[in-house]
Predict the 3D structure of the following.
Amino acid sequence: MLDRVPTPWLITGGTGAALALTAAFGGLNGVSEPQIPELTVGESFSGSDLLMTVIGVELSDERAGSGVYPDAEKGERVLTVILDVTNEFTAPRTAASGGADSPVVDGITIEGVTTTPPGLARADDGTYGIHLQPDVPVRIVASWVVGAEDVQDGDEVRITLPDSTHGVGQAITMGDYWSDPVIGAYVTAEVDEVEVP
């Protein structure tokens, strides 16, 4: 009996059945990309196994202990993001650029203003090479040298906070590492001009 049914009819019928099944399971549209959270100062974001909360953004002529050195003759200044960071991983980590934890630093930027990793130090004593113990919040300062016209007191800036993928090295790379950094959240904040020794 199937021999008597024209082949185009079979193809049309099969295609129709396939489309009906596709529609029943969500259609031909792809899964939409998740929206990147838009946060404000004081709101927390968890990414790269870190809980990060932006406390404020400051602009100053210099900032001791920031690890960045503006050229006053060129009118350069220091732009600093102050944030609380808590290590949510089970082992201690180091907040440093270029290492296993580089997404901690390299993913923190200010849209349209900064393109390089910031200088990173503890806010309380200016210590570099910050060690993040599990579940212990640390206030850090992330600082960049900016031009005199790049940002002004009262400007609203958009900070990016990183997310990344945790991996465990099995061969050449050993231990835990975080890779493939992406923007995990945006934080909108107002720049506050301060005098910092």
